[in-house]
Amino acid sequence: MHIYKRKQIAERVKLDATALEAVEAGFAALGRGEVEMPPILSMNIAESNGEVDVKTAHIRGWPRFAIKISPGFFDNPKLGLPSLNGLMLLFSAKTGLVEAVLFDEGYLTDIRTALAGAIAAKHLARADAHSVAVIGAGLQAELQVAALRLVRDIHEVHVYARDHTKAEAYATHMRAHHGLPVTVHTSAASACAEADIVVTTTPAREPVLRWSDLPRGIHVTAMGSDNPHKNELDPTILASADLVVVDRLSQSQALGELRHVPALQREVFELGSLIAAGRSLRSSAEQISVCDLTGTGVQDTAIANYAARLLEGV
Amino acid sequence: MHIYKRKQIAERVKLDATALEAVEAGFAALGRGEVEMPPILSMNIAESNGEVDVKTAHIRGWPRFAIKISPGFFDNPKLGLPSLNGLMLLFSAKTGLVEAVLFDEGYLTDIRTALAGAIAAKHLARADAHSVAVIGAGLQAELQVAALRLVRDIHEVHVYARDHTKAEAYATHMRAHHGLPVTVHTSAASACAEADIVVTTTPAREPVLRWSDLPRGIHVTAMGSDNPHKNELDPTILASADLVVVDRLSQSQALGELRHVPALQREVFELGSLIAAGRSLRSSAEQISVCDLTGTGVQDTAIANYAARLLEGV
């Protein structure tokens, strides 16, 4: 059994094309019906403003499955600790024996979450998309843009965050570390006006994006909502968009954007099914596409297997 | 963060009165409504005849919660490996940080399962119970008897197992290692005839015990069934017994004995509630009591906290 720490993992696993390929293979297997993926186990620890989620999935034929444990303790910053944490365990799918423990402290989750956004854009955004709007100014606001560069020739970034100071800091950081021109906006509408892709990366409990904010032809990825209380998209967006896609229907209905539009009467696709079918949904440069990502166990099994292969030097 | 292996853990954690007290405290907290315990996460890995269960619980006010991962891969014996395996992780209930990993390979599960049987008998069996019948001849057939000695003055054992050779081997082992007289029987009825307590410890998918097998005054603990396909007790037992108790109603209904009697119309108690209320259900030496144990996350959190305290020398 091997034990790996965050530093080792972060040195080997990068936001790059091979990592994207690994996560995309997970989505494709899900779309082909080759994945066993039980509902997320979730527990609240009210007295510490904490929660813990456990996700898992097995991809038929893969040698190992991962179990990911993600604690989120939101008073941690007061103690000088990060809110999010966690680890992944890799088990042999033949014997059930633990083969590796990845004490990644959430690093692999950050990576696979950013890659899912890139995979959504790869299959849904216009081929000539080059301008990204980001709502939110946290770590995913950075990683989503970095990941999008793997699938589209991104050369301008627009940011809007409720906290203007954080948006300014984000812009400075992105210019310095990613060499991208970044414009700070004072509204989501203004940030989206010039964008081909918009990614919402907030823990919002009320919509941060409205239908009227979206120019024709834009692709929207909503990656923030992952529990029943979170909600980034105004219901009119899901009702009015030309194309609506989610990572997993049952999850989006239980804890993603679909939860907030229970009466929605329209076809909603799963991202994995589109990939598996080699199907391009977008049929014109004018269509508005939306993808809601809640985060799935199959992404964890895919990235953990990929990380272990790199760490073992395979 | 501390990492402990099975050998270290087994050297410190024994089937004794303090371990029993720790697990009983978990049941009592559950009974007082002080436990957050989400449904079990369960995944099948059909191609390897495997499954993996994840259990957790947090006891309000306790410093740590455990997450237990239990793989069961039933073709492992063909490879010279045990079917059951697993580990427990202990997290700070204040910060969500991992504080200990107990690579116990199922040892602590064996212990807390045996202790639950003893706790059930402590609160339900006659005070003068001294004779135990065991149905099955595996590891729990041994541990359940050993644990019962913590709460009752057991001085005779009766065993019945479908495989007579295994029952004989069990008898030899119990005589040698526990100094107990053991009689091997050729039917469950005959084993129960002289017993004050009977424990079923099988993976049976059809009842191994019928109402007519039970003498007046006996206490029955059914500990084998822990998935929807398993079933040790004939429905007439649950319908006819004077007292019916389970570890957790929702679990017994989903994957324990109550699943097989959906139309049962009677009061069913939870073991923790009885302990919390200091309530003795048995009111006569003639009553027949039954307790169905499916195995709960609160037992895991209780035993893992206890084990870590011993290992850390607290």
CATH superfamily of the largest domain in chain A: NAD(P)-binding Rossmann-like Domain
Number of strands of chain A: 15
Described by its quaternary structure, the protein is homodimer
Query: In percent terms, what proportion of residues of chain A is strand?
Result: 15-25%
Helical residue percent of chain A?
Answer: 25-40%
Structural Rg of chain A:
19 Å
Summing up helix and strand content along with how strands pair, one would put the structural category of chain A as: alpha/beta
Shape of chain A: globular
Q: How many domain regions of chain A?
A: 2
Rounded to the nearest angstrom, the distance between the terminal CA atoms of chain A is 16 Å
Mean pLDDT of chain A: 96
Major sheet of chain A, described briefly?
Answer: 8 strands, parallel
Query: What is the count of DSSP helices of chain A, taking H or I runs of 4+ residues?
Result: 10
Named CATH architecture of the largest domain in chain A: 3-Layer(aba) Sandwich
Order of strands, main sheet of chain A, comes to 10-9-8-11-12-15-13-14
Largest interface: A-B, 44 and 45 residues
